[in-house]
Amino acid sequence: MVGRASTPGRRGRPRQAEVARLAGVSQTTVSLVLGGNKQGIALHEDTRARVLAAARELGYVPDPAARRMARARNNLLGVFSFTATFPVDVEHSYYPILVGVEREAVARGYDLVLFTGSSSGPAQTVAPGALQRVRMADGCLFLGRHIPEGELRRLVDDNFPAVHIGRRDELEGLAWVGVDYVSASAEVVRHLAGLGHRRIVLVRESDDAPASADRERGFRMALAELGGPNGAAVVRTARPGADITPAWVRARVAEGVTAFVAEETDTGAAWRQLLAAVNGAGLDVPGEVSLALLGSPPADLAGRPQPTGFDVPRAELGSAAVRMATALLAGEEAAEPLVACTFRPGRTAGPAPGRP
């Protein structure tokens, strides 16, 4: 739990009156700002910013019981994306998730509010207080590989119904719906093993996103079943186009590697690097080396041979997130099973060289 700022001579939860004094505004203004200004009263942006800054400084958290009485009657469900541009393009990997969100929200009688707080800056950038705007909705779904933990923690600590689409164990109290990447990744490796591959390398991005960790866990689990070496079987790319090169691929093949696996991410960086390196090395796929993708390829690479791997049922993931959020709003126990992926045979994996 985050620490709370304190005011000399005061004990217990900070009050709106203290926020008002620190911000130099009336308590009514504080109530409007922190309540999401559902009345639509015109407020100067500087005033709003001062109130939010004062609330953060004091560690103000609205009374949960009072908030429950004030909300949950709008039938509005928010969707907030931690990406540079809100993913509404049909080719964006998040688009099917939004389709599932909309479908389930309509079925449950909720309207959607799309928040684009990070659309004006680079990915992972969220302006201070941007997440506070989601309070105008009854609850909110969050999308994104990277999240501002501090901003999201304030909502969670306030018992605001927040659901992250994707596993997020690191933030205690945050509800999430996820994908069974562990089982799906292991299935891909077992498929390669059935084709005779024993030396397999995973290429992944350099961060520690839970989805990446789950894919690596499944990869290593299946690799361990083969009884072969796996200590150096995972390579993290930190510099697009620089870490995975044709020379690097040729060197691994010379060492006996017969298959490469890459993770899917928002950018598809690992898969792009691997494809470019294999092509640059002049290797035939799948004749000389096999490739697999733990997920679906970026839309702009859809014209390439379909990669062996798995597909994520993103629409079902979006629907599961809405079910989770509405259960939280109803005060019910919320639990959704991990969404299972579908294996995709593809055309980039074949028998290991030397095996018929």
Q: Which descriptors apply to this entry?
A:
alpha/beta, 434 Repressor (Amino-terminal Domain), 11 strands, Transcriptional regulator, LacI family
How would you portray this structure in words?
With 356 residues, the protein is of the alpha/beta class. The protein folds into 3 domains: 1-61, lambda repressor-like DNA-binding domains (434 Repressor (Amino-terminal Domain)); 74-178 and 312-341, Rossmann fold (3-Layer(aba) Sandwich); 181-311, Response regulator (Rossmann fold), CATH 3.40.50.2300. It is 35% helix and 14% strand. It contains 11 helices and 11 strands. The protein has helices at residues 16-23, 27-34, 45-58, 64-70, 95-107, 149-157, 181-194, 210-225, 246-254, 269-280, 314-329; strands at residues 76-81, 111-115, 139-143, 162-165, 175-177, 200-205, 234-237, 259-263, 290-294, 308-311, 342-344. Helix 5 (95-107) links the parallel strand 1 and strand 2. Helix 1 crosses helix 3, helix 7 (181-194) packs parallel to helix 8 (210-225) and helix 9 (246-254) crosses helix 10 (269-280). It is elongated and about 80 Å long. Mean pLDDT is 82; it is low at 1-11, 68-72 and 119-125. One of its GO terms (molecular function) is DNA-binding transcription factor activity.
